[in-house]
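hiii, so i know i said id send this last week but things got crazy w the move. better late than never?? heres the sequnce for the chain we talked about at the cafe, plus the structure i predicted for it. fair warning i was half asleep when i ran it
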Amino acid sequence: MALYDSIEDCCLRGLSWLSKGACFSASGMDLTGLGSNKYYIDYEKEQCVQDCDGPAPCGGVLNDKWKTLFHTGDECCAQIPWIPKSDCLKD
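okay and structure toks below
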């Protein structure tokens, strides 16, 4: 059994298939300040949200390591062109 000096070290080296947010959340850690502040598509809500914890436009810290992150809301919204831009960004 591997032992790590910190939860962060365990998440990065021992559970590398999980996103940092998912690992920290499962470990009961505070997610404040953990997100990248980039945008991702929340397909359930059909909106682009920010990878952060807090009020809109944050959609929560991303738990899915395999989702694509975009630098801007416009880049993200371009990936779901059937959603009007006025409805695309979470507010």
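btw Strands lie at 39-42, 47-50. thought thatd interest u
miss u guys!!
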